[in-house]
Design a protein that fits this description.
single chain, about 525 residues, alpha/beta, OB fold (Dihydrolipoamide Acetyltransferase, E2P), Rossmann fold, five-stranded mixed β-barrel, elongated, disordered C terminus
Length: about 525
Amino acid sequence: MTNLFDTDAASNLTEYTVSELSGSIKRTVETAFDQVRVRGEISGYRGPHSSGHAYFSLKDDRARIDAVVWKGTMSRLKVRPEEGMEVIATGKITTFPGSSKYQIVIESLEPAGAGALMALLEERRRKLAAEGLFDADRKRRLPFLPRVIGVVTSPTGAVIRDILHRISDRFPVHVLVWPVKVQGEGSGNEVANAIRGFNAMTPDGPIPRPDVLIVARGGGSLEDLWSFNDEIVVRAAAESTIPLISAVGHETDWTLIDHAADIRAPTPTGAAEMAVPVKAELQAQLSSLAARLQGCTGRHMDRRRQDVRALVRALPSLDQLLALPRRRFDEAAVGLGRGLSMTALNKRRSFERVASHLRPDMLSARIAERRQRVADRLQRIERFVERRTDDARARLRRADAVLGLVPARLQVQTARFSDRLANLMRHADSALTHRLGRLRADMQAQNRVLESLSYKNVLQRGYAVIRDAEDRPLSRAAAIGPREAISIQFADGRVDAVTGEATAPDAASPVKKRSSKPKSEPPTQGSLF
């Protein structure tokens, strides 16, 4: 019987190393599956790696295959991978010898159909609408005449030229262009950053802040316009404090930014027409209104002028207006002298009538009457004081009788309170004595400080105070002239003196020394303290 596992029988097979076998398998797989199209659902996608590559899987209900998108291919994809998205991937199958796995290297990616992409778009729309980003109360009105317009679009396309041309034709204003990519990887982030960048500008900054924004792109397929369906773009448009016009695609194209924008324009040219009015029409309207205003003003002035003329004709003349007041004035002037004479006569008669009643005996009687009235009132006051005194004396007697019947306990309490009062008085005397002692000590300390700061202590050290004739201290020689009376105050008294002529010290004149003491170190001025 022959042994199938005999060493001689197996020696006809080619012997491979692991690396050789892995490399052979890799070449075979890559040759057999050079270009394939795989349909599946994206699973495990977490965005690009730090290196720029993207790693995820494609799966269906029975199998799963790893997938990789290299950094260079990632920027060229029309559709960005998303978790759960069903796509058709085009690429080649290769193996990874390090782990004995095979994977597909994706070169292009497209949705598995418009139905799947629209389903994803509808799901995202419902999500953002539930958050209130599409509510009508969030939308703002466009300014009537903006001074600065910000445009977010590609700088190389025909869209920006159409917008600039339309704005220049209608009403030339300052336009700021924020260049962005409008298609491909990273375009959604650039558009969102542009919207937020315009909103971050300050009105008084070096670059003027736009009054209205236009986000524009030309027409294209659903995949070409997919960047404007990104959630980050929709949220940036909803958060914009500057009114925003969405002009993405043609009139039949709809993206999610159209729902979040304040107003949607059918085309980029239509957005420019919405942003600014027609200058010629405004000028014509202003001219028409100015003509109407001028005509209305003229007719109004004519009507007012006619009314004034009618009123002037109805008014009386100046002589007619002043005739009655002039007559009253003349009558009053005529009667004024006679009235003054009659008044003086009546006053004189009244004075004489009163003076006839003023006689000495009448004044004496009035004085005697008033003296009697004062005497009566003094008697009444004396009697009232006597009654009040008797009443008070009676109350004191009753109180004395009641106090004589005070119980012994009340007397004990009275004695205890008397002792307590005496004790408190002793404490009060002691506290007052201590308080006065402290105040006296404080005053003595303040007096010592005052004496130490007094200029009289300085006089004890040989200094003097010079005063003028009005007893004001002098601190400058220029304050007093020659032959004026002064007084010099020393520590022990004052000396009167008269000033002489002021002379400058001469180096040639001899200087009389006051003493012949040996030369020593120059004296230093002592401290006042």
